[in-house]
Amino acid sequence: MEVRVESLAATRAHREVLTEVSFTVAPGEIVGLLGPNGAGKSTLLASIAGMLAPARGAVLLDGEPAHRIPRRDIARRVALMEQQPDRDIPLRAADIVELGLLPFRGRFDRGGSAHDASLAREALAAAGAAHVADRPWTELSGGERQRVSLARALVQRPRLLLLDEPTNHLDVRAQLDTLAFVAGLGITAVAALHDLDHAARLCSRIVLLDRGRVAALGTPAEVLAPDVIAAVYGVRATVLTHPEDGRPVIALDGAVDQAPPPEEGP
Known about the structure:
Blueprint: E1 3-12, E2 15-25, E3 30-34, H1 41-48, E4 56-61, E5 64-65, H2 71-75, E6 78-81, H3 93-98, H4 114-126, H5 142-154, E7 160-164, H6 172-183, E8 188-192, H7 196-202, E9 205-210, E10 213-218, H8 220-223, H9 226-233, E11 235-241, E12 248-255
Parallel strand pairs: 3-8, 3-9, 6-7, 7-8
Antiparallel strand pairs: 1-2, 1-4, 4-5, 9-10, 11-12
């Protein structure tokens, strides 16, 4: 699926959160959304998912305005994995994954079928969460909940996957496994991330947001430059090159208003 964001402005609570945001995601491409808290990443994902109508501009999914696509139809094409809610849900993990299949059920279906249950368990296995299928959501750790949420997105077999902080609550190994899994899906994806190294590892291009505007757009090597990081995040960074794959590796050195540590003498 192709995503085109054209001069997008979006408002929430009568406040403009995004202003003149433009970029394109080619079919099969993974694009990362970076920026400080409050930069507008979650609002941009909601706009791409058709949940938020533009104040100005447009979001087009294969040429169609996202907010005008019927909710049932868009749910069959687009899966949104939101940041993990804290609320408890009185369902098993497998039941939560099956909720992702609701847009595909007939109008008079009263519940899931054996086929739906099988699809849910396949998605849990793919997300590395098969072992929690029959456990209540209330008993799952933050990382387990994150994997179940990913399985719920995957069970829809979407053409576009939207991810809001997909590595939250995961340990280091699980973070790397999740990034590798998403990269191997072969579908269009837009991922909001906090970790700069994760973005460099996963994404072919990055949209860097700052106070609702695009501060930089390009490949990880183009966007994750020391001067750009300093301007947007207010931190000094040393950018190295990974010896195996050539991607940038970012070492954060401290706030820009802090003096660097003195060099050691001879």
